[in-house]
Amino acid sequence: MRNINLVGIGLGNPNLLTKAAYKAIESSNIIIGARRIVESIKEDFADKLYYIEYNTEKILEIIKENIGNEIAVVFSGDISLFSGSIKLFERLNAAIEDKKVFKDCKINTFPGISSLSYLCAKTNTDISKVKILSFHGKEELLYHNIDSNEYTFIITSKADGVKKICRKLIEFGFFELDIILGENLSYDNERITKANASKFLDMEISDLNCMIISNPDADKSISFGLSDEVFVRDKVPITKSEVRAIIMSKLDIQTDSICYDIGAGSGSVSIEMSRLAYDGKVYAIEKNPLAVELIQKNIHNFSAENIELIHAKAPDGLDNIINADKIFIGGSGGELISMMEMIFTSKKNPTIVISAITMETIAQITDIVKIAKEKGYDTEITAINVSKSKEVGPYNMMMAQNMVFIAKIW
């Protein structure tokens, strides 16, 4: 049995290499890894043949070329936290099951000390309360994660990444939150600094860093059916709170949903969508220039980073709609049938919710429901009549809102 060892070496200081990881490297003839990782262990294992490589496919080729040897592929930190080891393990496992080149090979895994566990231990932070993000080579949504978690750990993208995050925190109004910045962790020039966002903007920061943002007032609850008064509205119609709550329940939005709000009006439904699909994306389509301005203001006020506003009259602006899984149509501009023809070409079988208050739109919905059933969709239509109390002198009278018809197609 030939061993392929996937080894987490920790943060880089060889003194933090676990005994098991040390033995795995010691017993290997071939060592493969990124330059910084290889350089950190070379002195202690001088008799090995080293390959500098981090690309998964190229590592596989090196392993194939050296298949008669015991091999160690080394990774920074822990192999289970934002590690290339995960993809490599999957590719190796598939190749071993194929029983061709990698016949009689065994994958062994050796965890290391991660920057997360190290920084939490150094700062007495309860790791079980930490939300983990990475801005290393990708974008994450900051506002929701920080607003809803007591601690948020972020692996950043170099020094500029820290400052970009700090500027966003200030933009969101998180001026006073404590940030713990860890630089060059485990090395002789290690530095751990606790300050608020503004303090880091003028600071010289190492590219090798990570951070923990503390929010003691975090609120994990996410509700929908927000009060109408929290939105900037002007004279643009708004989907009322109670109706909006029912629309959201019908859509059944997941955290990573790709959503469309067509005929977005003042953006109230888009905002509700963005709060639920906080790891997903929301496209708000609106043709009215005044409404577009209001949506922009509401996006800013709610720090809704995952909304993309598209100023267009549908079906223009629906370029990505076949990738959507949750679609709300609150205004169609007379193009409801053509929009639905486009949506029905999707292979994702999205959940579609359509609201209507005019008889003409209701008639169109009836036709659409028939077509949807023929295509294998389930359908339902709900009529909602909401009345709210209003003070009239010493009395409270129930004032009826427009009846709304809501069609769900899924």
Outline the structure in words.
With 410 residues, the chain is α/β, with parallel strands linked by helices. The protein has three domains: 2-113, 3-Layer(aba) Sandwich (Cobalt-precorrin-4 Transmethylase, domain 1), CATH 3.40.1010.10; 116-214, Methyltransferase, Cobalt-precorrin-4 Transmethylase, Domain 2 (2-Layer Sandwich), CATH 3.30.950; 228-409, Rossmann fold (3-Layer(aba) Sandwich), CATH 3.40.50. It is built from 13 helices and 19 strands. It has helices at 19-26, 35-42, 56-65, 85-98, 115-123, 142-147, 158-172, 197-200, 241-251, 268-276, 289-301, 336-343, 359-374; strands spanning 2-8, 30-33, 49-52, 71-75, 105-110, 130-134, 151-155, 178-183, 191-195, 209-214, 258-262, 281-286, 307-311, 326-329, 351-356, 379-384, 387-392, 395-400, 404-409. Strands 13-12-11-14-15-19-16 form a seven-stranded mixed beta sheet, sandwiched between helices. Helix 11 links the parallel strand 12 (281-286) and strand 13 (307-311). The relative contact order is 0.08. The mean pLDDT is 94. This is Precorrin-6y C5,15-methyltransferase (Decarboxylating) subunit CbiE. Residues 4-198 form the Tetrapyrrole methylase domain. One of its GO terms (biological process) is methylation. It holds the Pfam family TRM5-TYW2_MTfase. Pathway: Cofactor biosynthesis; adenosylcobalamin biosynthesis.
